[in-house]
Every structure is written in structure tokens, then in C-alpha cells.
Amino acid sequence: MSTITTTRSPTVSLALKLLWREWRGGELRLLLIALMIAVTASCAVGFFTDRVERALVRQATEFLGADLVLRTSRAFPENLRAEATQRNLQYSEQLVFPSMLINGEKMLLSSVKVVDDHYPLKGEVKVSTGRDQVAKVIKQGPSSGELWLEPRVLESLNMEVGDSVELGASVFTVSQMLIQEPDRGGGLFSLQPRAMMHQSDIAATEVIQPGSRIRYRYLFNGSEADLEPFRDWLEERLKPGERILDIQRESPSLGTTLTRAQSYLNLSGLMAVIMAGIAIAMAARRYSERHYDTAALLRCFGQPQRHILKLYSLQLMMAGTLASAAGVGLGWMAQYILVELLSGLVPGTLPGPGLVPALVGFCTGMLVLAGFALPPLLRLSDVTPLRVLRRDLSPLPRSAWLVYGLSALLILMLLWAYSRDLKLTLVIAGIGSIGALILGVLAWILLRSLVRIPGPLAWRLASKNLLRHPRDSLSQLFAFGITLAAMALILIVRSDLLQSWQEQLPDQAPNNFLINIQPWQVEELEGYLDNKQIPHSGVYPMVRGRLSHINGQEAAKTIPEQSPGRRAISRELNLTWSDTLAADNRILEGRWWQPEDQGKPYISLERDLARDLGVGIGDKLRFSFGDRSVESEIISLRSLDWGSLRPNFYVIYPPGALEGLPANFITSFYLPNDRSAELNQLIQQFPTLTLLEVDRLLAQIRSIIEQVSIAVEYVLMFVLAAGITVLFAALATSIDERLQEGALLRTLGGNSKTLRRMLGLEFLLMGALAGILAALLDEAVSFWLYQQLFKLEYNPNLALWLWSPLAGAALVGCSGLLGTRKVIKQSPLKVLREL
Amino acid sequence: MTGLNNVTILTPQTSSDQTTSILAARNLGKEVQAQQGIISILSGLDLDVNRGESVAILGASGAGKSTLLGLLAGLDTITSGEVLLNGQALSHLDEDKRAQVRSDSVGFVFQNFQLLPALTALENAMLPLELKGINNAEAEALQILERVGLASRVEHYPRQLSGGEQQRVAIARAFASRPQLLFADEPTGNLDQHTGEKIIDLLFQLNEEQHTTLILVTHDIRLAERCQRRLELTDGRLEPML
Q1: Which end of chain B is more exposed for a tag (fewer CB within 10 A), N or C?
Q2: How far is B242 from chain A, CA to nearest CA, in Å?
Q3: Does residue A1 form part of some domain?
Q4: Residue A90: beta bridge partners?
């Protein structure tokens, strides 16, 4: 300390020198290690989720075939190729139309996809040259003159690769068996057996005539920055019936999975940051308390308050920089090891780690340090010089709300940056602070009542110790409680998410759709399916109608151009009637039909559509069906699960209401793969029905869900690791007192068994109390999270109230004993002399 | 206070042979590892203390007085030589066995009192008795607290007591278990002269009442003069003071 003998403002070099001495003396070690682990954990989570997220989005867009797809039923008038090139976007176009494939006597209606030289923009195509040949993965479509067919087409037409097949006016030689195409996800009802050919051959087939049912797909790839203005440009030129597709709209089921996964990963990041912050706050407090004497001495040497503040701030900043940088490096390595460990599980080729998580991790470190360590460190500058004479003079906490306000703001900003969701941040912060207040009072009452319970010496010492410094015990209790709550939350949400995903696609999810069922076939078909013991989702009528008026007003004038409701009025909707509510539908408002409602123009509307249209119970919607229209009153709002792969409808009428309108029927059913031969019998029995097999689509969705689940599991591990770090940091804050007490007890003749029992009891108690607090906190937070963020049904988790205190006691008990081994091991003399 | 009538007064645990040595150090050495290398604090130190004797150990600051006291009480491990407490060689005992020896026969008074802040005066005084597993610890502790003049403050916590009062609690705690051997490390170091003298009077009174052997580490020559024997620690060895 001899360096500080003048009142000159402290320099960086002085701060650096002191920093080195502090490190050598072991004083800063805990703070820096806490910070480093914090940054490592949040960085590893950041790097990993960033990479997995990008991989998932990539996989999901492969599902779509591109970053952005424009789907039209007429050729788009503008030159999209030129526009895309000018805007730095990759471009590809496709035509899809139904056409007959003919091989001698045999015919099959298939969906022909016509691709250009740039196909596929995303993902890969899997082909093989025969049933027994090994499939190969390529990144191109058929060349001119080639036709690729799906195995079931070959099977149905009794053909092999190399045979010829007629398509329109052309005869093609089948050159490959098409095993898998990346962009198969485009709508369930387009999934007729696939044939694929090159653009240049289309004219010769003469299949495209005026009035042909053709879907045009224009695909674009590019950076978000290039795509965004292009999307706007396109939207301005869209006509009714033309749609821009992104992954959310294209596959709602997959979209929800991804949104939930992202929310979960963000939530995990948030929890890691909160826990890291707590660890740092605990470590900073200990550091600050151990430096009151040094600060008092510096004041005696004539340093003014602001110099001391500057000195410690400088020291803290430098320490933070070093530890954060080290944390980023470690996090980067940890993430590599993680990816390496998971190489067989995570999406095959992950994109490289981005720079952003490194930057975010570093800033996180600095911000967490500032937000959580500033308040305790500021107390250092308030130390009175008189402390050198009277050691009991501890500085009062700063009354300035500014300091805590600033810290709170910093922390809030950080949480926001991590959650990327202001509402989530505010709710967690709000519930957190109100919860903390209530919990503080509760914890205090619990602690007080514990001390009154008589018991052996170890129990009394343990319970009294908790009450010794109420503020310290409470802050430790909070640290443990919040940490346990964060860990439990991530654990609970994880299993509920996995379960909801699993339920979304149960093992027996329908893998076949039957459409074009005529009214007179319904009874016979139901009988056939029942007879063959094929469980089905029910046969639903389907009537196509357009929403023309809302409450008497023309819908096109009521719904603004930019409104999401616009989509519903720009196309025909599939309407149905039913007297029973499907299992995955739930009435949210209003009521389902009574027998007397039969034939009345009532409707049950899907809730998201109701929201988009701005209508509710009692409002009237007019649907037009060609030359007829029906004015219908909304009498219930429904939620439904688009991911269930059962026929689902926005609008349901009671039976009889749509009497006389042309309807055909639809159903879906599950048939195990080993019974697929029965499909042929079914088609032979009902030759006019169209059968759509969606096994491949299901497999694709399943594989994405599997990967998301794995990511979720592993991120959980990082959160748990961060939690354990907090436990140790919190323990370290009271290690000095525990060491002294342990040494004294041993001096007075206490043996290691007594000590261990006392410490163990204390930590068990603390852990159990923290577990109760955690359960309380979790119920509050998860109630909101489930309702708002994950859109899952919330059920109070009763088991949590049992296992949270138990897990808390076990976790804190074990880490407590582990973290305080020194208390039992170290020579009592050494401790008594040092402290 | 109801337990007072039922108090069983413990008699000091004295051996039939009052003249035998209770504490002995043979060729005692202690080295510590420091940044500069190994530092020898004590070397070849010999000491014999008889039962009931009071011995003052004096020495300059840093001479190793507290280290010696710690080694004699089995609070730290010795580097060479041997300490015999009640004839038992401490170097052969593990930490728990040494704790047992301390629990059975040793008391301590420290310069900075070393009371447990979470416990009341009474609970602090009860502690060694409870650690020893004595049933009527509370009655014993109350009796001794009364003896040191703190009957009215038994429910107070250390932070509510003055320095002198805290040291009285510490003395009560030290004598509560009726040790054969009491180690006192600068017991008046943190007290003003007046309070210090009172504390010393109390210490010697109780010492006499309980026939305790006293090892007092101090640099206060006046305090040392109240002991039967004075030894000075210089260069790691003990020399009798004339």
C-alpha cells in the first residue's frame, strides 16, 4: 500500500498493480471465477443455441424449400428472376400440377413438379436407381429429358427405373427413383405421388393448357436484410389468391414447435444470466466486505472518496475485461466440445459459431458485473477512515436509489437483450421483485419459527446460525431459492414442452388422408374402415366458401389491407358441419350445438381467425357458395390443434345448416407401415377416392422435433451448471464466518462429526427453505409463461411442492458440505489467527 | 434458574499425584512454508508444566508465542518433537482425538474473546459442556456466569455486551467444563487497563478455586508476575526469566 501516499487520482497502472496483488492474495479470485463461469455458461448457451437455432431455421426452410416462397395460381407478371438477381437473391421457380402417368394399361394421377437448374435452393434430394440400390444424396433436380418418380408411383404402375412412361404428349425414361425431396412440406393436400421433371421439357408434354390447375412456386434465398425489402416489394404486388410463404405460415405445427423451442432457449439464456448475476453479487459483496479495512486505510492515507471509487471501479473494470474475455474463450471451447459430443445427434452440419454470441457474452459479463457488483463496491468509498480505529464501523448502504435504480435498469436491459422479449422480461422482473418481497417476509417467519423448535446441539447451532445475520441468511436463501427456481423452471418447462411435442405427433398420428369422398360413399367407407379395424378421425364434410360480409359490411372493406385477417377473405375457406366436437377442439367462449340448433345458421369459429377478423360471439359472417350465401351467427369460439394431422376447420356449422350445398368428405387415419398393402385394397374398393400418404412429412416433422428436443436437453445442462456455480459462490460468501466458528468449536473440543452434522443441518434447512421459495416462485412464473409464451395449458404442479424442497435440501446440503470441507479440515489455530 | 438447586458440583479432575507433569514439550519444532522458503518458528523447545502450576510465557511480537500455545493445546500439528498432554503424545492423535483431549481437559481464553455471535452469553458458556455431552449444561453454565457477575445478562448476545463483559463470558465458558489446563492468549489485550485488571483478578480467582493449571501467553510483564513461573520465548526456545 506504500504506493498510495499522495492524493493524486489513481491511475490505470496503480489499479493494475493493486489488481495483481489482489489476485495474488486470492482476494479477487472468487469474484473473477464467478464472473468467468457466468460468461462461460452464458456464452456456451449463446453459441450453442445460436448455432442450433440457425441450423433449425435452415432445416425448417429446407422443409419449405427456400427462405421465402411466392405461391400463385397464375404466372407472376413481373420478371422475378431479374428482380431477385438485382436484389442479390438466389432464385428458382417451380410448377406443380396434377397429371396422369400412363404405363400401358395402368394409370396414376400424380403431382408433377417442374424444376429449373437451380433446384433445390435449400436442402438435398435423395435418389436411387432401384429398390435394392443405395440411395445417394445430390443437390440437383432432373436434367432435361429425365423423369424422376417416387417408389409408390413405380409400384403402382408396375415399373422399374429405366422403363418408359407417358406424361401428356411426351414419353420419358425414368432415370431415378425419387426417395426424398427437401420441400415436400408444401401443404398436406398437394401430396399426391410425385413425379419430377425439368423445365425445358414442359412445352413438349402439352399438358399445360389454358385453365389447367397449376401452382407456380417462386423461391428466393438470401440474407434477412435483402429479403425484408423484397418481401415488401412483393406484397405490394400481390393479387387475391397469391401468397408469400414463410415457415410460420407454411407449417403452423412446425412453426409452433420452433417458436416454443426458441422461447425455451431464450428463457434458458435468461436464467443463466440471472444466476450468473446472483453469483457475482454474492462474490462482490464478500469482496467488498473484506476490503472495508483497506478502504479505511486508503482514506487515512488521504485518498478522497472519489479516488477510492475510481480506484475500485478501474480495478473492477479491468478484472471484468479479463474474466469476460477468458469466459468467452472458455464458452467457445465448451460449445465446441458440446457439438463434438453431440455430433451424432444435432443437425448434421451446424453453421459455424457466430461472432454475435461472443460479443453478447462479453457485454453480458461487463453488464452483469456493473449491475450486480456496483452497489456493494460503492459502499467501499463510503467507509469512514475511523474504521482503522474502530473496526465495527461498517459503512451504511447507500441511501441513493440512483445506484440501485441504475443497477436494476442495467439488469433489466440485459434480461431484455437475452429474452428478446420485453414482456417476458418485465413479467419475470415484476414477479421476481414482488415475489422477493413476499418471500422475504415468509422466509423470515419460517426462519424465526425454526429456531423455536428444540433439538440437539447441532440443530440449535444450525438454526441459530441462519438467524445470526438475518440479511446475509436471507440473501443466501434468495440466491439459493432463485437458483433452484430457475433450474426447476427450466426442468419443468422442458418436460412439458417435450411432452406437448410428443403429444402433437403421437406414435399413431394419422399418416393417411382420404379426400374427394362423395356423400354416398361415406357410410360404406366408414363401414369398411371399421371392419378392417383402421381407426380414423371421423369423416368430415368439406364445403368451400368465401367470406363476403362481416356484420352486413363487405369484408374486403372492413378488414384493412395489412391485417392478418386479409388472408381469410382473399381465398376460399374449407367449411364443415358436425354434431360432435373433435377431440383436439376446445370451446373457449359460447356454447356447442344443442339438438334444437340443427339446421340453424350458427357457426363455431376458430379463435385466431376470430381475432384476425376482429369478431366475437354474436357477430354475423356471410359466406358465399357460388350463387348462394348464408348469413351465419357466431355462437362459439374454438381452439384447435393444427398439428394434430386430423382434418381441422376454421368454421363449423351444425348439421343441416349447409343443406343442399355441394360437399365432398375428408378423413384421416393411421395405418402401420407393415399394413401398407391394405392401402391398395382400399383404393381398389374405392377407386375414385384420393389417398394422400403423409408418412414422409411426419418423419420430417419428427426429426426436427427430435433435434429441438436434444438442444433443449443440453441447454438445460448448462443452466444446471450455472446454478451449481451460484450455490458455490453463495456458500463462499459466508465461508469466513463458518471457518471461524468451526475452528472455535473444534478448539472447544467439538469433533468433526458434530461439525459436519451442524453444517449439514444448516445447509439442509437452508436448501429446504429455498426449495419452498422456489416452488412458490415457479408456480407464479410458470402460470404466466405457459399462458402467454408457450401457449400450453397450465396445471399447478403439486409434485413440485414435494420435490423442490427435497431437491433443494439435497443440492444445497451436498454442495454446502463440499464447499465447507475446509471448515473441518483446516488447522483451528491457523483459522483463529488469520481471522 | 430452576435447575440451580439440582446442580451437581463437579470436582476438578485431578490426578492422585499432584506433582506429576500435566504438560510437557520435548524437542518441539515448528516450521511453516512461506513464499521465501521454509521458516522455522520453534526448534528444540522443551517445557514441563506441573499440575496446578501457573506459567507465563513472554516474548516479543512474532516470537511464536501463539504458535507455541496452539501446539501445546493440539490446535496445530507439530513439525518435530512431541507434546505430552496428561501423558498422551499429541502427535500420535488425529484431529478428532485431539479435540476429545481438549474437550476432556483443556479450556481457552483468547485476546479477541472468540464468542459465537449467534449464541447468547448462556449458550456460549454452555457450548463446551454440550460438546462434551453433559446433561445439565444449562445449570452449570448459569452457575459459572453468576460467578463471573453476569447473572443478569445471560440472554444477551455478544454484540449487546461490552468488551469486558464478553471476556467474562469467555472466561465463564473456559471454566464451565472445569478443565485441568487453561490456555490464555493475551486475555487483556483488547481491554482497557481497569477492565483488564478485573478480568485478570477473576481469572486467577477461578484458577485457584478450581485448581487449574494455567498457561498464560502475554507480553505484559505485570500480568506475568502474577504467575508462579515466567518463561521467555526467544529464538524458538523457552528460557526462564529471572
Answers
A1: C
A2: 30
A3: no
A4: A221
Domain boundary among A215, A245, A275: A245
- Distance of residue B142 Cα from the nearest chain A Cα, in angstroms: 17
CB A827 to CB B130 under 8 A?
no
R_g of chain A computed on alpha carbons: 34
> Is residue A313 domain-shared with residue A196, that is, in the same domain?
no
CATH, domain range B54-77+103-240: 3.40.50.300
Highest mean pLDDT: which range of A61-70, A271-280, A609-618: A609-618
**H-assigned helices in A534-676:** 555-558, 566-569, 607-613
Q: Which residue has the cell 398439428?
A: A643
In a domain, A5, yes or no: no
Final residue of a domain: which of A693, A711, A726? Answer: A693
Give the least confident one: A711-715, B21-25, B208-212.
A711-715
Question: Does residue A397 belong to the interface with chain B, where contact is any CB pair within 8 Å?
Answer: no
Q: Note which residues in 463-522 of chain A have CB less than 8 A from chain B.
A: 464-465, 467-468
ipTM score of the complex? 0.79
Average pLDDT over chain A reads: 78
Measured CA to CA, the distance from residue B82 to residue B74 in angstroms comes to 11
Q: CB–CB of A340/A307 below 8 Å? A: no
Whole-angstrom distance, CA of residue B222 vs CA of residue B220: 6
What are the boundaries of each domain within chain B?
54-77+103-240
pLDDT tens string A420-439: 677 777 877 787 778 777 87
Residues in chain B closer than 8 A to A748 (CB atoms): 102-103, 108, 127-128, 131, 173
**Cα distance from N-terminal residue to C-terminal residue, chain B:** 48
Label the pairing between strands A243-245 and A68-72: antiparallel
Of B100, B116, B130, the CB nearest to A744: B116
Instruction: Kindly state whether residues A666 and A777 are assigned to the same domain.
Output: no
Tens of pLDDT, residues B67-85: 898 899 888 888 999 999 9
pLDDT surpassing 80 at residue B145: yes
Angstroms from A464 CA to nearest CA on chain B: 6
Q: What phi and psi values does residue A682 have, to the nearest 5 degrees?
A: -60, -45
Q: How far apart are CA B8 and CA B157, in angstroms?
A: 27
H or E stretch at A217: strand A215-221
Q: Write out the H or E segment, with its range, that includes residue A157.
A: none
Residue A541 shares a structural domain with residue A597: yes
Confidence band of B8 (pLDDT split at 50, 70, 90): very low
Q: Are residues A133 and A29 in the same domain?
A: no
Tell me which residue has cell 431459492. Answer: A481
Nearest CB partner across the interface for A829, out of B70, B116, B117? B70
Residue A787 is assigned to a structural domain of this protein:
yes
Which of B71, B103, B105, B185 to mutate against chain A (most A CBs within 10 Å)? B103
| Residue A3, in any domain of the structure | no
Q: What is the CA radius of gyration of chain B?
A: 18
Phi, psi of B239 (to 5 degrees): -125, 140
Backbone angles phi, psi at B89, to 5 degrees: -80, 115
Residue A44's nearest CA partner among A275, A339, A293, A308 is A339
Q: Which of A379-393, A618-632, B227-241 has the lowest mean pLDDT?
A: A379-393
